[in-house]
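Design job #97: recover the sequence.
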């Protein structure tokens, strides 16, 4: 649909989409007692939702019932919607449901943990991962097997030559490769199909952690006969404009079919006797208990929305915005951007930008942006400690000192960065707001006096915080 839109039509559609964002107009309190519209540049953590998704969820809620076991109309339509969502999600990543299955989980982390537990590893096998991974694509493997890390190039991108060397060095022992599709720190995108071909040539299979990729790039698992086929993908709905609580693991039935389901209870059995239990087939055997039916429907609706906006529109808009951000950030004195060549093309990076500003601690920059600028970013190590350490050039000695401090519950000197990340609804005005405030911080033109909290490493205004959350939100519904 979107490929046929003219430039003007695309611009108008993007403007409408921005207007549809739930919470776009929300004003938040500031240190000086005023209120300002919130600018969300923390999309790599989680995205807000759109009214069109919220509307569909509300529509479904009117039809909501538990799935699979009821004969009432609502049970039947809810069951149909749940299975239809599975088909939509399979379509979203071009999976072949005659060979692959879609298992709904809580999030990417649960998807990867599930794969790590179910995958039929041989006893002496290893997983090849990389230094650029989120902890969720690192720690689950450590529990099951040996892990070998692919190195980085000096610019923070994956060193594909080192990957080839490691595949060769461990040939015969590598059962699985687990790599991110795109980094949640630098936004760098990996050449997933090339990496898949190399893994297959070495007799291994490949998981792509698509948590960051899914909202920004089309995912095509490709037919399993294709040497560049992606064997497994994992992603989260809350990063795809559907923060209703689910994730997905997609992969071939044979590898995910363990003799015992990972979790047992209702929903996973065909028959239970006093002595025995007879497990259902995939995917039900891996979805114990009542699933998050509303979340699954929301994920499918979000997938459909992204597809109907059109990947060309998404990629073009976000790339333009990222280039704009690079330009504007580059004009702020004392900015260091990590892990990316300035004008790298859309294939190489997402709108996820990690930076530091002069010698102002990253937590203080993020604090000022929030308390005085109403701007939401993230700071720290972004659950990718090794990668951030490398990008920042932290020495082993410094790292050891900080590790000691963290273990003593002092997080005030953790090396890290500030991360701004864009979504399809952001526009130039959001980047202008960010860069305007960074310029003020660089000039020392902020008003608050900040103190660092040792336990959290956060910088907060001295004295009273301007955030009184009970004033903004309570759990008390209006009585009818
Ligand atoms: C690349 C990457 N992988 C995995 C995760 C974990 O996702 P979730 O918290 O939804 O499980 C994240 C979250 O930030 C991520 O960015």
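Job complete. Output follows.
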């Amino acid at each position: 649909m979107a490929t046929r839109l003219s430039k003007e039509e695309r611009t108008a559609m993007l403007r409408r989409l921005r207007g549809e964002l739930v919470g776009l107009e929300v004003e938040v309190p500031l240190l000086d007692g005023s209120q300002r519209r919130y600018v969300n540049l923390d999309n790599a953590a989680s995205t807000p939702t759109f009214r069109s998704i919220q509307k569909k969820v509300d529509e479904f809620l009117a039809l909501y019932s538990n799935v699979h076991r009821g004969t009432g109309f609502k049970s039947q339509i809810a069951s149909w919607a749940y299975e239809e969502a599975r088909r939509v999600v399979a379509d979203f990543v071009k999976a072949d449901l005659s060979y692959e299955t879609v298992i709904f989980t809580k999030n990417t982390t649960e998807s990867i943990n599930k794969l790590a537990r179910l995958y039929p590893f041989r006893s002496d096998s290893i997983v090849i991962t990389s230094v650029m991974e989120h902890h969720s694509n690192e720690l689950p493997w450590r529990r099951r097997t040996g892990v070998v890390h692919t190195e980085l190039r000096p610019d923070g991108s994956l060193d594909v030559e080192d990957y080839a060397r490691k595949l060769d060095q461990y040939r015969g022992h590598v059962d699985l490769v687990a790599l991110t599709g795109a980094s949640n720190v630098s936004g760098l995108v990996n050449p997933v199909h090339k990496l898949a071909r190399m893994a297959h040539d070495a007799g291994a299979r490949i998981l792509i952690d698509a948590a960051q990729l899914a909202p920004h790039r089309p995912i095509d698992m490709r037919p399993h006969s294709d040497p560049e086929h992606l064997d497994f993908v994992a992603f989260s709905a809350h990063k795809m404009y559907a923060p209703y609580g689910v994730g997905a693991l997609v992969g071939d039935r044979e590898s995910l079919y363990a003799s015992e389901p990972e979790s047992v209870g209702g929903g996973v059995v065909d028959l239970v006797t006093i002595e025995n239990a007879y497990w259902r087939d995939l995917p039900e055997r891996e979805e114990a208990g009542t699933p998050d039916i509303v979340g699954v429907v929301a994920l499918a609706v979000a997938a459909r929305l992204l597809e109907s906006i059109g990947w060309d529109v998404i990629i073009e808009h976000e790339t333009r915005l990222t280039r704009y951000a690079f330009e504007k950030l580059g004009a702020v004195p004392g900015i260091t951007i990590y892990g990316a060549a300035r004008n790298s093309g859309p294939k190489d990076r997402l709108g996820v930008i990690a930076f530091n500003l002069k010698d102002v601690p990253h937590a203080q920059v993020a604090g000022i942006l929030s308390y005085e600028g109403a701007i939401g970013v993230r700071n720290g190590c972004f659950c990718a400690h090794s990668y951030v350490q490398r990008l920042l050039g932290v020495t082993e000695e410094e790292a050891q000192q900080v590790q000691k401090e963290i273990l003593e519950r002092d997080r005030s000197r953790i090396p890290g960065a500030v991360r701004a990340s864009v979504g399809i609804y952001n526009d130039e005005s959001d980047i202008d707001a960010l860069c305007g405030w960074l310029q003020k911080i660089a000039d020392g033109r902020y008003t608050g006096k900040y103190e660092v909290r040792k336990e959290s490493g956060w910088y907060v205004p001295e004295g009273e915080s301007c955030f009184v959350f009970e004033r903004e939100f309570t759990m008390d519904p209006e009585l009818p």
